[in-house]
Amino acid sequence: MNSNDARSGDLEQTYRGAGDAFTALFNEISKVIVGQKDTVEQIIIAILSNGHALIESNPGLGKTLTISTISKTMDLGFSRVQCTPDLMPADITGTHIIEETGGKKEFKFEPGPVFANIVLADEINRASPKTQSALLEAMQEKQVTVGNDTFILDKPFFLLATQNPIEMEGTFPLPEAQLDRFLLKIVLDYPSFEEEKEIVRRYTKYDEPHVGKVLDKNMVLQLQRLTRDMPIADDIKERAIRVVMATRTWKEFIEFGASPRASIGLILAAKARALVQGRNFVSVEDINAMAYPVLRHRIILTFESERRGISQDHVIKEILAKIR
Hints:
Elements: H1 3-29, H2 37-48, E1 53-56, H3 63-73, E2 78-82, H4 89-93, E3 94-101, E4 104-111, E5 118-122, H5 129-141, E6 143-146, E7 149-152, E8 158-163, H6 176-179, E9 184-187, H7 193-202, H8 217-229, H9 234-246, E10 254-256, H10 260-276, H11 284-295, E11 300-301, H12 303-307, H13 312-322
Parallel strand pairs: 1-8, 1-9, 2-5, 5-8
Antiparallel strand pairs: 3-4, 6-7, 10-11
């Protein structure tokens, strides 16, 4: 058996076990995270699509706990960066240090927190534009350049950035070019009464909940490949493209629409959603569900729309209703 046949056999085995794996994954995560089913699903979809995600929510809703829990269930390396205005690019990427060995001094590269499988950039809009741009190469090229040296990041690599929509003073809003690098923008809302009651019950006891490993790094990489192999009918693919292109002509509400990167992202995210939900095909419902997190950060509303309190989600809903 050659290497291609072995790889195909591994993929087939992963596909057959994917349903049980995702069920076990969500069950394990729910031991720690109460509710937030859509948020957890969308983070996993971004990982399977080999993309990155931006989460916007008020403080204290468990963003850090959610992503660290997911990393544990997938047995992936995790690091967290607290973004502040004085954070320097080298604080993220790493730097060369002088090390003395056997009476000789030589430069040695000390990796920064970006050298992990899952990186949480907390309150990314508090970092300076120079530091924000240091993440661009890592996000897009999956590599880091320090001086004359280039270092390849370990696979899989996933960046989850958070931002607080309440406090805007002293922040540096992400430019559109950097926002476009994120596959999804996830909006996290407050829990319901019953969910908050369960949160209080779990986290006021002596023993806090823990999770175990469900997937491993190799299986995550195979699931990423299966995501791209997911079949999608031509008419559904064309509808996804028409939805994205409509954002460029919907002049009543939209000043600037989404780029072709959004079309790629929407189809990939829909494929990942189908895989997570145990189907071997992409449905219209997958496109509709993923249009919101894929497009909401890629369209800029007109001044009149913002004045009237119209949101990006409202416009996306209208586009989905009219595009057949």
